[in-house]
Amino acid sequence: MLENLMARFADYLRHNEFSISPAAVHEAIQLAPHLDMKDRFEFQSSLSQLWVKHPYEQEKFNECFKEFFFYQIQDKMQEVEQSVKAKQKMVWTEKEIQKAEKRRDKQKSNKNNQDKKGEDKHNLLSDSEKQWMKDTMVQINPTFNKLYEQAMKGQFKALLQEDKLSKYSPGDISKFAEELSWQAVLSEKTSIVFDSIQETTTFLLSMRKDIIKFKNQIKESISGIEKSELRGMRKVVQTEIDRLKTRDIKGLSKKEVQLLREHIQATSDYFLTRVSKVLRKTRKEADIDAARTVRKSIETMGVPINLYYHRPKVDKTKIDIILDVSGSVIKSAEFLSHFAYLIHERFPSQVRVFVFVGLLDEVTDYYKNEEMEVAVKQSLKNANIDYRGYSNYDTALRMYYEEYGSELDQDTLLFFLADGRNNRNSPRIDLMKEFRGRAKHIFWFNPDIKMKWNQGDSVIGKYAPYCDAVFETLNVKQLEEALYSSVEYIEESHMVMEV
Questions:
Q1: How far apart are CA 411 and CA 403, in angstroms?
Q2: Which residue has the higher pLDDT, 469 or 134?
Q3: Which of 82, 116, 270, 351 counts the most CB atoms within 10 A of its CB?
Q4: Phi, psi of 92 (to 5 degrees)
């Protein structure tokens, strides 16, 4: 059988413009007993070495090998004379054709009655052929055999639960079919077996596609439900955050403060993007270096051909934040500290934070902690001040002026968060005038209700003339709006200066 098969393959190659002599065919037949026919790749490689004479023919040879043994084998199992040239072809016998027609009729009937499960697709095979198919499939790939049997019996649920078929690629199934076909060639099976192999392959591929499609539909359905629930949850959470933002900061619980803190941290990108525009480095215009220009002009008989400039000075915008941490405004100071921490984290050398009740102390070093909550808590609780007293702007402003006033310049932004209630102490308006003359901008955030400003011991009205803006910041929403308004004011003032 093998000799006849090789002779027919040689004839097939000749019809595809290969030049193969009878001697070459005879040599291949003599070599055949020494080949491991179970390994079709070794068989293909051996024939290639004998019959391929030029490198450019190799690819065509491989295609012909696949066409002959796997694509057309079911139509070319017997030799008949069809022309004067005695071309050989493999054809089905009349009996096999009748069987195939019956099988196709059966398939058509099954297609119209898909609810009928457990139909045996191999009813045209003899018992021995059925057994051969089963044994060979188990030998090549037991998993495919099991999955195929489940599919034949309509056990779609089992296929889904095991979820093995979808893990194989179409290429894996095709390789399985090729190996099965090769075993059929070696076993001299009839063409109906090859047709059954092709049907098996098609069915496995179809089932794989159906399983993947079904799983994707389930996944999309679940995903849609999850997305809908997630949108609903986000809406609920967002609504809760919005509600908390409008609540008076003094009345927030620890849990509510924590929720707002997490929200501020999670949405910090936009805030920092806006602030970064204000804190970017500014390069001042270079001045002419007169001495160097004159000195260089000596080389050209006193005529200054080239102007020389001093190296341009690069300045950084600085922010000083002064927080009143007395009992009446400590929670508001905590929230502004959260924003201060975020700015300091991005621009560590450009932000300083100070706290006071009576005495004033710098707490910037605490902001080096990687945890915002820890840093803010330490900065508000561990400063070198007396937390038990009442707000005293006289002492606080004087200490800031004496220790840090000389560092204020036109690159400094000064922020106060305080209610302006000075407990009958001196408001030190003279120092506010000094700050106004030195700093570029001054903003005041007042956590006291606006209708109570300038009542009792409130002196906010005396500080307001020396500030670019004074904001009411009873809640987090107002605090955020005050920060953004301050940034917008600074940006607009820069634009005016440039014009």
A1: 18
A2: 469
A3: 351
A4: -80, 150
Q: Where in the chain are the domains?
A: 2-71, 260-281+316-498, 283-315
Determine the Cα–Cα distance for residues 129 and 194; give it in Å rounded to an integer. 11
Bridge partners, residue 441, by sequence: 413
Nearest to 317 by CA among 417, 439, 466, 406: 439
Q: CA distances (Å), 483 to each of 281, 382, 438, in order?
A: 20, 26, 21
Task: Summarize pLDDT for 404-433 with one digit per residue, the tens.
Answer: 999 999 889 999 999 999 888 999 999 999
C-alpha to C-alpha distance for 172 and 163, rounded to whole angstroms:
16
What amino acid is encoded at 310 in this protein? H
What would the two tokens of residue 15 be? 């019809």
Q: Which of 60-69, 244-253, 464-473 has the highest mean pLDDT?
A: 464-473
What are the tokens at 207? 């089932």
Distances (CA, A) of 204 to 104, 153, 174: 18, 13, 10
Q: What is the rounded CA–CA span in Å between residue 27 and residue 323? A: 99
Instruction: Please tell me the distance from the alpha carbon of residue 232 to that of residue 238, in angstroms, as a whole number.
Output: 10
- CA 385/CA 360 separation, integer angstroms: 7
- Asked if residues 384 and 357 have their Cβ atoms less than 8 Å apart, the reply is no
Rg of the chain over all Cα atoms, to the nearest angstrom: 44
Q: Could you tell me the two tokens for 361?
A: 């102390």
Which DSSP symbol is given to 57? G
CATH code of the region 260-281+316-498: 3.40.50.410
Query: Is residue 283 within 8 Å of 313, Cβ to Cβ?
Result: yes
Give yes or no for a contact between 195 and 129, defined as CB atoms under 8 angstroms apart. no
Angle of helix 40-51 versus helix 170-186 axis, rounded to 10: 70
CA distance linking residue 436 with residue 409, whole number of Å: 10
The alpha-helical segments, DSSP class H, found in 170-302 are 170-186, 191-245, 254-266, 268-279, 290-297
pLDDT at 443: 96
Extract the runs of DSSP E, i.e. beta strands, from 11-82: 79-81
CB 475 within 8 A of CB 448: no
Burial degree of 47 (CB within 10 A; 0-12, 13-18, 19+): buried
pTM: 0.49
